[in-house]
Amino acid sequence: MTETSRIDSGPSATPRALAHVVYRTRRFEQQLDWYGEVFGARVQHRNPAMAFLTFDDEHHRFAFLDLSVVDPDGEEPSTRSWVGIDHLAWTFASLDDLFENYRRCRAAGIEPYWCVHHGLTISMYYADPDGNQMEFQVNAFDTDEACNRYICGPAFELNPVGVEFDPEAWLAAVAQGASLDDFRERKQHEPVSPIRGAVSALL
Hints:
Elements: H1 3-8, E1 17-25, H2 28-39, E2 42-46, E3 50-54, E4 62-66, H3 67-70, E5 84-91, H4 95-107, E6 114-117, E7 121-127, E8 133-139, H5 144-151, H6 154-158, E9 163-164, H7 167-175, H8 197-200
Parallel strand pairs: 1-4, 5-8
Antiparallel strand pairs: 1-5, 2-3, 3-4, 6-7, 6-9, 7-8
InterPro entries: Glyas_Bleomycin-R_OHBP_Dase, Glyas_Fos-R_dOase_dom, VOC_core
Organism: Wenzhouxiangella marina
Pfam family, one: Glyoxalase
């Protein structure tokens, strides 16, 4: 297959935009100050372990995990708690596109390691062969205004980590006549996903 034909036959459902970057840091306050100065970023939500910031209409462009709180004794790379980028997030246009991408990747033997409804977004997390992590997401609300109200409101404060879901269960429901859009609103806030257990234990 030529390079041109490979590109022409690429997937139809691809991300439409880079949504945000999440960092791990041991200089939490300094980072918030720096991004506030450099990007004019404002804090949308903050708790003892993390903060979410934005500089435009998007609900968040940056998030920071405070390692001095989450993992105060972890310093070696083998603990996966060293400072730096935790993951990049990519936004899809719709749940249909997100799940089309899920099915295509699954057929190629590529599975998400974490599927979670954050309340704010429906997200699937993947890791590339080098272990770089990425989030594929769809906003749970139709407008930027609704997303911003949610991230600044009590439901997100109650559980900013999220509730896990099984994409196969959602697809099975769709096969029985449901719509993927039926799952956009998170109707329960527990149990908090244990994959970020060190974070959720502090909330």
